[in-house]
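Researcher: Here's my situation. A collaborator sent me these components and asked whether they could plausibly form a single complex. I don't have experimental data yet, so a predicted model of the whole assembly would be a useful starting point for our discussion.
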Amino acid sequence: MRLTPQRACTSLTDVRERAAVTPMSVRPILKFGEPVLHTPAETVGTFDDRLAGLFVDMVDTMYAAPGIGLAAPQIGVPLRAIVVDLSVGEDPAQLIQLVNPELVERDGSQRHDEGCLSVPGFEGAPPRPERVVVKGRSIGGDERTYTATGLLARAFCHEIDHLDGLLFVDRLSPLRRDLLKRRLRKRFRHED
Ligand SMILES: [Zn+2]
C-alpha cells in the first residue's frame, strides 16, 4: 500500500540515507497486469530460512518504495505473506510481518483514497471495514492476532486482498472500475 504524498516526501530521505549504510535487498515491484498480481497466492507450509529471507526482501522493498504495506506477490512470489508498517521504518515496534493472514472479524465501514505500489499514479476509495481482527503466523510459525481500526485496518485489507489476487481497483464500483482498468491497461501494457 502506498503512502500519502506528504509522508512519502519526509520518509524517502530517511530510507535513502539508511540504504547508503545498510545492505538492502530491494526487489522490483511488479505492476498492474502481471499475472501473479491477479492470481490467488498459495498458503505457506514451511517456516524456514527461505521464508525469513523473503521477509527481509519484502521489508527492504516496502521501505525503499516507500510504502506502508507490501504483499509477496508484488515482488513475484505467489505466497501468502504480508508486511505492514505505518511508520515506514521509523518505529520498529510498528512493523508487522504476517504469514497466512486471514480476516476473522470485520465491523463497520470506511472509505478513503488508497494507492498501491503496483498501481503507481492512481488512487481509489474502495469500501473497507472500520475494524478488523487478523489472524496469522509469525515468520517462525507462531500464532499472531491483531485487532486494527482506521488506516491499519485498511492496510491489512489491502494487503490480504493482494493474496487473493485483488487490487483496490477490483473493489471499486463497476463503472469506476471499468474506467480505471481501461486507463491502467494502456498505462501498464505488458508485452507477452
Ligand atoms: Zn497494493
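Model: Some features of this prediction you could bring to your collaborator: Confidence is low (pLDDT under 50) at residues 6-11. Residues 5-187 form a domain with the Peptide Deformylase fold (CATH 3.90.45.10).
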